[in-house]
Amino acid sequence: MTITPRNEVTEVAIKLLIWAETDLAAEHILAVGAPKPRIGRTTLGLVSPKHVRRQAAVFRMVSVVEAFLDTLSRELTGSYVPYRTKTLNLLLEDFDVNTTFSWQQREDAYRRYHGIELKKCAAWDEINAAIQARNSIAHGLGRITPKQVRKANLASQLKAIDISIVNGELNFGEKCLTLVRDACSEFVKAVDALTP
Length: 196
Description:
196 residues, mainly alpha, 6% strand
């Protein structure tokens, strides 16, 4: 049975998640006969094409979820305002800026303004793990950041999406991208189902 999303942005987000996994992680991206990289590991981490593609796919999928939440929040908030004036538009812009800077701000905004507890939505634990992986990719090129080193449960959290930590670096298992894609899709659908 196919469930039709309540919001167009949900359908678009799900398509982008599928494309991120299938296109960014595809082995066919490497040209036939392309030379093997001369250097496999640097002080900045692993540089194998397969590893970099997996990082890019996870990064993109988490970005799709962030963009989905921010766009949906903007659309919902705009629908609460029956007419617009210059001042109301400025207030909506301020709302957008002040509720999308971090995941904590998103969670607070969804709870306060839309009555949705993101942490209670399906696949939240996997989303949270993917967020941690994304942060490691964004701020450490796949190496655990100094802030993440302090998180006692990080390794067990990442296991939910088939990522392990080896010598301070993310190691992507074979099921990782499918698990992240499925979790992101499930989460997006769960949030969509809670909208008016």
